[in-house]
Design brief:
Layout lengths: L1 H25 L3 E6 L2 H4 L1 H16 L3 E6 L2 H10 L6 E2 L2 E2 L3 H25 L4 E5 L6 E5 L8 E6 L2 H8 L3 E5 L1 E4 L6 E3 L2 H11 L4 E6 L17 E3 L3 H6 L7 H13 L4 E6 L5 H7 L6 E4 L1
Parallel strand pairs: 1-2, 1-11, 2-8, 5-8, 6-9, 11-13, 12-14
Antiparallel strand pairs: 3-4, 6-7, 9-10, 13-14
Helix pairs in contact: 4-5, 7-9
Length: about 290
């Protein structure tokens, strides 16, 4: 037992020594994390993700969370007898659905996440795109209802929170600036990418329910650990990237081409995947660079 404890101590010391240069690298830099999927609904995964983010924030890394909440929204729609509808992978959002989206994301999910971070010893504040004119949007297309395309991003309120040591937890409800709708529902991946650009982030990280980009979707050993944005079109053409992964990669590509240093597709089902990616030599998931 004593020998095992000594081994454990040596392992912890090795992990910490390996992490130190990465903590120094990211200190004072901004990292934007799109949080959703299983990591948001499984209690153990939720604790792992939020504790990782709280820890990194305490290490003077400016962490920003952009969250989804699809299952919660669907639950409330079911309670009021509305069948969820999706068009081209986007939630059709009529006025009644929009009220539930705003209530669920900004009024419930974001607040619960902020409270949970505080329970873990961190500091967080729940915000939405309506606060301080943070997000302005226009209607994407009439067929989607109140689904918006981001036009403006105002980062002042986010930076005030970051400067005070808080983790901004942002729900993607935006003000309408096109005189068509007062409020719009924004795709969380798209919003995370746009915020990463506006905040001049060092890294954009999208938590998903897959291991990363796989050459063969049925073989986890074919994970592409690192790739450049120039490889994305050919991977789409050959069918390596397909379905819901295409808009995620397009989001990463847009962010990188507009100044974000790197983007990750991470498996949120793996506990502490954020720490493993940011603070170890090996990393996990897929890293996309210029």
């Amino acid at each position: 037992m004593k020998q095992q404890m000594q081994v454990d101590k040596k392992m912890r010391a090795r992990v910490l020594s390996e992490a130190l240069p990465y903590i120094q690298k990211y200190s004072g830099k901004t990292v934007v994390i799109k949080y959703g999927g299983a990591a948001m609904t499984d209690p153990q995964l939720k604790k792992a993700v939020l504790s990782d983010i709280a820890l990194l924030s305490m290490a003077s890394i400016r962490m920003v969370i952009v969250h989804g909440g699809g299952p919660e929204i669907n639950g409330w729609l079911d309670k009021v007898g509305i069948e969820p509808q999706f068009i081209d992978g986007l939630r059709y959002t009529d006025s009644e659905t929009m009220e539930l989206v705003q209530m669920t994301l900004a009024g419930k999910v974001g607040k619960e996440l902020a409270a949970y971070v505080h329970e873990l010893g961190g500091k967080a504040v729940s915000l939405c795109g309506l606060d301080g004119g943070m997000m302005g949007a226009k209607q994407m297309a009439d067929k989607y209802g109140q689904v918006g395309e981001l036009v403006t991003i105002e980062t002042e309120l986010i930076n005030v929170a970051l400067d005070a040591g808080y983790i901004p937890i942002i729900s993607t409800v935006a003000s309408g600036i096109d005189d068509i709708q007062p409020v719009y529902n924004i795709n969380a991946d798209t919003a995370a990418g746009a915020l990463a650009v506006a905040l001049k982030a060092e890294r954009l990280m999208l938590l998903t329910d897959v291991a990363g980009i796989l050459k063969d979707k049925d073989d986890p050993t074919t994970l592409i650990s690192e790739m450049s944005v120039s490889e994305i079109p050919s991977l789409v053409q050959t069918g390596v990237i397909q379905g819901g992964m295409i808009p995620k990669l397009e989001c990463c590509e847009e962010a990188i081409r507009r100044g974000v240093k790197g983007a990750n597709i991470l498996d949120g089902r793996v506990p502490h995947s954020i720490l493993m990616e940011m603070l170890t030599d090996g990393g996990v998931g897929t890293l996309i660079r210029v």
